[in-house]
């Protein structure tokens, strides 16, 4: 019996996979002493994705999450920087945003090896970086994970509300031209988006969203072509525009660009569901290819949009297009449809967290539960947008704060914490570099908050003045 027991223990010991999968086992023996070659854990070899994305599909997703309504605000961003400063600033901001995504994904892949897990989400990566970092900070791992998780959920849910307002406002502008006697209220316009948005949000796999992203990318190019057509009509000389704006306006430019470019919440889901995740980083790599395209388009639209409309440029350049021109109306309608197609991809971020939180609690009615959860979330976003049609001012405040924090500050902190013990590079250059990124994020945070609050105050004052004038007119009548 003792020989049989010893044989059983030896047979169990030979499986390194069983040992690594048991978190309670802490062996002090050397596997090499048993003449077993220890193979480093490769997370890519252990990933089992039911619906993996191709490399091209992953590029399409990254392009779609970055090329949204934010690119339409780039001419307004250039207004706060000038032509030369805006061009240089866009390149720098694009490089910083790309770099922070790079260090986040690289840290995630390295932490996967330590944790012996095939993949980690954004929040899980942040928590694991603390857990496997310095001993004094390990106890903060779970708190950081939960903090990032809920911050991501709130941020992207706020983006969904803004998307509803954008779609409703665009459709209202178009319909009001053709129904001047019966103008549609913004609340009704937002309500009309409910059923289509509920349907598109029932798609549960990123792979099935690729056709929608591809179509959205194609349509947004059509919108760009139409917009650029109007932009290049009687284009003024660059001498008529500021080359470098006042330095007091630069933070406004920075916060706008970061808010527009950051797609940090979609990065980890895209990387985790790639068929060949090792192609995400590197040169050319999925990340670099997508961001080169994004930065180029942002700089192009920002430069020539500001050159054409100058200080009169609005928050979305499509609002500068002629109201009674059919081609301009088509551009506005297509852009609303693009945002509609983008809704499903943005919706994936908060839904991914909810699905993960419910893991292990599935029931036999799981399909119905999923439908109900998704329907309720979309309904709430539409209801909030309809109740507060100027919600974009509030959401821009939340988005600017969270995107600058989630997209810049947190990746820099996570990278620093994870590499704190003897891995900060020569002369601790990683520490100094990440400190600079943190400073940039804080500037963007406060400047974004300032712009949003100032806009809300001005908007409130404008409505008060308008109501006062209406009261005076009614009294005179």
From TrEMBL:
One of its GO terms (cellular component) is vacuolar membrane. Pfam families: Aa_trans. It is found in: Membrane. Residues 53-453 form the Amino acid transporter transmembrane domain. InterPro entries: AA_transpt_TM. Keywords: Membrane, Transmembrane, Transmembrane helix. The chain crosses the membrane at residues 147-171, 183-201, 208-232, 252-270, 282-306, 326-348, 368-388, 394-418, 430-451. It is a multi-pass membrane protein. One of its GO terms (molecular function) is L-amino acid transmembrane transporter activity. The keyword Membrane applies. PANTHER family: AMINO ACID TRANSPORTER (PTHR22950), GH04538P (PTHR22950:SF494). This is Amino acid transporter transmembrane domain-containing protein.
């Amino acid at each position: 019996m003792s020989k049989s027991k010893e044989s059983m223990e030896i047979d169990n010991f030979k499986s390194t996979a069983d040992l690594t999968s048991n978190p309670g086992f802490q062996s002090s023996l050397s596997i090499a002493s048993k003449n077993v070659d220890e193979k480093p854990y490769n997370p890519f070899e252990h990933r089992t994705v039911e619906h993996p994305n191709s490399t091209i599909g992953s590029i399409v997703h990254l392009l779609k999450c970055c090329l949204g309504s934010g690119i339409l605000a780039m001419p307004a961003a250039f207004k706060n920087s000038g032509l030369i400063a805006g061009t240089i600033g866009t390149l720098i901001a694009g490089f910083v945003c790309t770099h922070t995504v790079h260090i986040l994904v690289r840290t995630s892949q390295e932490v996967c090896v330590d944790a012996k897990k095939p993949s980690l989400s954004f929040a899980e990566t942040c928590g694991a970086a603390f857990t496997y970092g310095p001993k004094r900070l390990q106890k903060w791992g779970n708190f950081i994970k939960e903090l990032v998780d809920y911050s991501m959920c709130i941020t992207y849910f706020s983006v969904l509300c803004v998307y509803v307002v954008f779609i409703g406002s665009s459709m209202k502008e178009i319909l009001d031209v053709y129904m001047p006697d019966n103008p549609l209220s913004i609340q009704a316009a937002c309500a009309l988006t409910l059923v289509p948005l509920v349907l598109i949000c029932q798609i549960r796999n990123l792979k099935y969203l690729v056709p929608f992203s591809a179509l959205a990318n194609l349509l947004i190019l059509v919108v760009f072509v139409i917009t650029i057509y109007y932009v290049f009509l009687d284009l003024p000389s660059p001498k008529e525009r500021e080359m470098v704006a006042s330095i007091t306006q630069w933070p406004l430019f920075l916060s706008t660009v970061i808010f527009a470019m950051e797609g940090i919440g979609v990065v980890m889901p895209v990387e985790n569901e790639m068929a060949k995740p090792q192609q995400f980083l590197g040169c050319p790599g999925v990340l670099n290819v997508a961001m080169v395209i994004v930065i180029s388009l942002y700089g192009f639209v920002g430069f020539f949009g500001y050159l054409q409309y100058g200080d009169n440029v609005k928050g979305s350049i499509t609002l500068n297009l002629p109201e009674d021109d059919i081609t301009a109306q088509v551009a506005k309608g297509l852009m609303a449809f693009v945002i509609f197609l983008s809704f499903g991809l943005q919706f994936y971020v908060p839904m991914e967290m909810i699905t993960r939180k419910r893991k292990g609690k599935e029931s036999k009615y799981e399909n119905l539960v999923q439908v109900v959860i998704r329907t309720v979330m979309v309904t709430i976003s539409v209801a909030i947008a309809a109740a507060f049609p100027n919600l974009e001012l509030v959401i821009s405040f939340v988005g600017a704060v969270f995107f600058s924090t989630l997209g810049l500050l947190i990746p820099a902190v996570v990278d620093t914490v994870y590499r704190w013990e003897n891995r900060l590079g020569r002369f601790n250059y990683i520490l100094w570099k990440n400190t600079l990124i943190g400073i940039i994020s804080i500037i963007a945070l406060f400047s974004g908050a300032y712009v949003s609050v100032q806009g809300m105050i001005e908007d409130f004052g404008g409505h008060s003045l308008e109501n006062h004038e209406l009261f005076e007119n009614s009294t005179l009548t």
